[in-house]
Amino acid sequence: MMALSAVALAICLPLAPNLVPLLMAALAISAIWPVQGRWERHALRPDSPLLWMFLLYLFHLIGLLWTTNMSFAGLDLGIKAPLLVFPLIYVFGQPLRDAENVQRWFIGANALAVVLCLVHAVSTVAGNLAGGGAHQGTALSGFALSVPFFSSEFSLFLHPTYMAMYLTLALLFLARPEVNRPWSACLTGTAGILLLLGVVLCASKAGWLLQFMAGLGTLAERWSERSTRRIVAWGLSAALITGLALYLGTDYVHERVGQVVQTLKEESPNDQASNSTDDRRLVWRAAAAVVADHPWTGVGTGDVKDELLKGYAERGYAEPLRKKLNAHDQYLNTAVALGFGGMALLLLMIVVPTVFAARRRHVLLFSFLLLNGLNWLVESMLEVQAGVVFLAFFAWLLTPEGSRTSPPNMLSTKRTDRP
Question: What is the pTM of this model?
Answer without folding.
Answer: 0.90
